[in-house]
Specification:
Methylamine Dehydrogenase, Chain H, four-stranded antiparallel sheet
Length: about 375
């Protein structure tokens, strides 16, 4: 009988150990990783990447055109020509796409045919779709900071002085648009009905040069991804109260929030993607740092598959130039029309225009 008890005890212990091992393996399998990569030869620099989740299309402005890919397979799907742009935004209701270029190009998202071009002032950089008013916001580091366009017909509704240089924006769908101002270390709050800035939320020295922005619209929480220091400043969208700061990688230029997983994310030029878990509206933690690729500092969210897509460009060395020298001479994905800044591989808005041939890398990060 004693032997039977010992055997039973041993069986239970082994079963418990197996359960622990199984749980550990399950947790390891559930971590984020690069699931897929593709490479496409071409020319020109890249900046922002954009997922049209309704139409299942991925947009990548590169050089003098906007490339499109199937969001599920990453197969090439045509292009919009004569559009030297930084970013893309789509109104799913009207089926109209827009890019931050001068002039702004407006197209039919089904045919990719250009509908019209829209003359705007400033230097178009970032771009965002605001769903409540069905308007497109084109952002510029010089005045006017924001040009607002009616997505239905492409008419200009107005312009806004944001009080600083805008990078990324997030709408709560309830009348507020939050815009991070890189040179002011703050977030402008815009009333989308009146097109007025109602207040600014200071980052209070906790972080500087916000490049990416995420928003948990349900719990009214903002995630400002900053350069100096490299942190995510988490604050209330209601009053700007700072809730926490967490470390991220170096050279952030984009970020977001996935309401399906309660996770914020930030892509960095140092070849990392930081995942932040919102445990509760008052508790946050860095969940994982995913290794991606150098200069893959802009990203977008595939909401259907809960996957994050990043882009970067790998240059092809010119004849007689070593690969080491080619890499040293580039600073990042690049802004169309701006020179590189050697020695700053993950820096702000990292330059690095590529006029020669290079491989466009598309990376898909998610849980297997």
């Amino acid at each position: 009988m004693k032997n039977l008890n010992r055997l039973a005890g041993s069986t239970i212990a082994v079963a418990g150990l197996l359960a622990i091992v199984t749980a550990s393996v399950a947790r390891a399998e559930a971590t984020y990783q690069v699931l897929k990569t593709t490479q496409t030869m071409g020319t020109g620099g890249v900046d922002y990447v954009y997922a049209d989740n309704d139409a299942r299309r991925l947009y990548v402005p590169r050089g003098n055109q906007i490339l499109t890919f199937d969001l599920d397979t990453l197969a090439p799907g045509g292009s919009i020509t004569n559009a030297r742009a930084h970013g893309v935004a789509v109104d799913p209701k009207s089926g109209h796409g827009f890019c931050s270029s001068s002039p702004v190009v407006m197209w039919d998202t089904k045919t990719l045919e250009t509908i019209k071009t829209i003359n705007v002032e400033g230097r178009p950089d970032g771009i965002s779709y605001e769903p409540l008013t069905e308007r497109i916001y084109v952002f510029s580091h010089s005045a006017p900071n924001a040009t607002v366009i009616d997505a239905k017909d492409g008419s200009i509704v107005g312009t806004i002085d944001l009080g600083g240089a805008p990078e990324q924006a997030q709408s709560d769908g309830q009348g507020h648009l939050y815009v991070d101002l890189e040179d002011q270390d703050s977030i402008a709050v815009v009333d989308v009905n009146t097109l007025k800035v109602t207040t600014h939320y200071s980052l209070a020295g906790k972080g500087g040069g916000p490049g990416g922005l995420g928003l948990d619209a349900k719990n009214h929480i903002l995630f400002a991804m900053c350069h100096e220091p490299a942190v995510c400043v988490i604050l209330s969208a209601d009053d700007g109260k700072i809730l926490d700061t967490l470390p991220i990688g170096t050279g952030t230029d984009d970020g977001g929030f996935n309401p399906a997983t309660s996770e914020a994310f930030s892509s960095q030029g140092d070849g990392t993607l930081t995942i932040i878990q919102e445990k509760s509206p008052t508790s946050f933690a860095v969940e994982q740092t995913v290794t991606t690729k150098s200069r893959a500092k802009t990203c977008t969210l595939d909401t259907k598959n809960n996957r994050i897509i990043l882009i970067t460009v790998e240059r092809v060395p010119a004849a007689g130039t070593s690969a080491t020298a080619a890499v040293a001479g580039q600073a990042g994905n690049g802004q169309p029309g701006q020179p590189g800044q050697a020695g700053q591989p993950g820096g702000r808005r990292g330059g690095g225009r590529n006029n020669g041939p290079g491989l466009l890398d598309i990376l898909v990060v998610g849980r297997p």
